Amino acid sequence: MILVSQETIKAYRDKGWWSEETIGGLFLDTAEQQAHHLAVVDPPNRYAITADQPLSWTWAALLEQVGRFTALLHAQGLRKDDVIVVQLPNCVEMHAIYLACAISGIVVSPVPVQYRRHELQHVFEKTQAKLAMTTHHIGNYFAAQEWALNSSHFQGLAQIWSLGNDLPAGIGSLTSLLSNSAPWRAKQLRQHMQDSGVTAHDVLTICWTSGTEGRAKGVPRNHNEWLITGRTVIEAGQLQRHARLLIPFPFVNMAGVSTSLSAWLQVGGTLFHHHPFDLDIFVSQLRSHIIDYSVAAPAVLGLILKQPEKMLGANLSQLKKIGSGGGPLAEWIMEEMKIQFDIEVVNYFGSNEGAALCACPLDMPERATRALYFPRMGVPDFSWQLSVAEKIQTRLVDLKTGQDIHEPGQIGELRFKGPTIFSGYYKAPELTARAFDDQGFYRTGDLFEIAGDERQYYRFAGREKDIVIRGGMNISSEEIEGLLMSHPKVKEAAVIGAPDPIMGERVCAVVVRQSGHEVTLKDLTDHLKHVKDVASFKWPEQLIFLGELPRNPLGKILKRELRERFFPKTTAHPMAYEGRSPLEL
User: Fold this and answer.
1) Which of 182, 198, 214 is the C-terminal boundary of a domain?
2) Is position 427 within any domain?
């Protein structure tokens, strides 16, 4: 499945930005060269999450498992360009699945463990995936049972395989299927890849992202797009060969795959899984293993700095860089991470579509500057250490006039073009047409302004798109508003992000009730959970009642007015939220 034009492929190859090396080929080379090195390690608390004992595989053991998965997929009739959907927490099997698909030319579509029937139905409508893989349960979510109950709603789905025991009727035991499948060896895998016609320009993944549209959008990415993104992680984190990585980001989107698969593979490293995030488990892994690189959300770094006693006994001798993103980084976090733990923080801005900026010590050694700004990459006047800066193009555009902005003090939309950017949303030509401007630049929907004494920086200024970002997960306000409006006691609804020190934002519902009716937060969450079967991270955690919603003369709800009224930047959070256990996924 090649979605990029031959003209674009040739242009990127001629410049040396893309190659013919595939992720599958790179894996086979690496596994044969360092068979006895440790490759992937399960979270130490995996039993508490899925009731499976944690595993660790060398590169040779991972090669064997990839051989089993590849042989099994082929025996079950899966072929190049077929799509499979995977709903698993971070675990060693995720690596085997990704790599088997890379070798076979099968497209893997990973979905967050929070997705339920509402989201999954849309995924299958778009992909027509023939196969789904999951596990018996993930925390309090009995995944296999829910897949069995809802399978009739998923277009094209023929088989469901699951890890675990005591599986419901109609669910195939992935453990049994694998044990009865003789693994293909490296030579067979190479031949299979050649026979299947897999190229570096073929789509490997379809990940899912939310924006202003009501439903998630499929973002296809090919081998080259993943490899070039992983190289940026390697350069920014200054990762060396055989680096040991502790990655708690979900293995389902840009932040997870670019590090856990692409960067890990290119350095031939060891990947320590972690999921869902648990500070005590995270620190215990730092005590048990010498780690070279990790990632954490800004709020997590803040928690660590506020509770430094938790880090006692952690071996930080090699951990000199931590990547962070998904929310604003405070200057004090940058400084204190260096002072207390001798760790430099790499500040990332990015999207599943491949638009990314990276403020790292190589280009921005001053920590206060790195917290506030990003290098103005992709602009001819400036030169940066990260090689991606010479490959992408960026422009800042005034949304009212459509003119390029070249001077500080004016806010505009940041747009990207180049070999990191996706080719378009999966089977959504209308969305794709709106996503790119007439010069071929991807419209991020994110607002920036030019900064710095030499105009060398970008400063994030907000979002033009109407989304809530909760713990790094994009949530479409429009989608949740439509779901809330389906409740019989709700007359009108608006969804905004409520600032939160832990998650960045939480979902706040501003509701106008139907005349004569009362409605509670529990009423709304029960409706989303039991009637609409919506992922729990999208449920509102705060509820505000109004007699009417503020609107402009054209009837559009004034979200900015709601945010300024209820969450002014100078005041504390006005309402408590209803927290959920980390395992209640």
Assistant:
1) 198
2) no
Strand order in the sheet with 490-500: 490-500, 504-513, 542-545
Asked whether residue 137 is domain-assigned, the answer is: yes
* CATH code assigned at 181: 3.40.50.980
Last residue of one domain, picked from the residues 198, 222, 240: 198
- Asked if omega into 276 is within 30° of 0 (cis), the reply is yes
Q: How far apart are CA 358 and CA 388, in angstroms?
A: 10
Q: How many domains does the chain have?
A: 2
CATH number at residue 492: 3.30.300.30
DSSP character at residue 153: G
Apex CA 460: angle with CA 454 and CA 465, to 5°? 140
* Domain membership flag for residue 485: yes
Per DSSP bridges, beta strands 374-375 and 244-247 are unpaired
Establish if 281 belongs to a structural domain.
no
> Residue-wise pLDDT tens for the chain (585 aa)?
999 999 999 999 999 999 999 999 999 999 999 999 999 999 999 999 999 999 999 999 999 999 999 999 999 999 999 999 999 999 999 999 999 999 999 999 999 998 999 999 999 999 999 999 999 999 999 999 999 999 999 999 999 999 999 999 999 999 999 999 999 999 999 999 999 999 999 999 999 987 655 688 999 999 999 999 999 999 999 999 999 999 999 999 998 999 999 999 999 999 999 988 888 999 999 999 999 999 988 878 887 888 888 888 888 999 999 999 876 788 888 999 999 999 999 999 989 999 999 999 999 999 999 998 999 999 998 999 999 999 999 999 998 899 999 999 888 999 999 999 999 999 999 999 999 999 999 999 888 899 999 999 998 877 766 778 887 777 878 788 878 988 989 988 899 999 888 788 899 999 999 888 999 999 999 999 999 899 999 999 999 999 988 876 545 678 878 988 999 864 333 332 233 333 333
How much is the pTM?
0.83
Secondary structure of residue 302 in the 3-state scheme: helix
Per-residue buried b or exposed e for 326-337, using 16+ beta carbons within 10 Å of the residue's own CB: bbebbeebbebb
Q: Which domain holds residue 554?
A: 467-566
Locus of tokens 């506030």: 372
Residue whose tokens read 């890379």:
102
Token code pair at residue 257:
């795959």
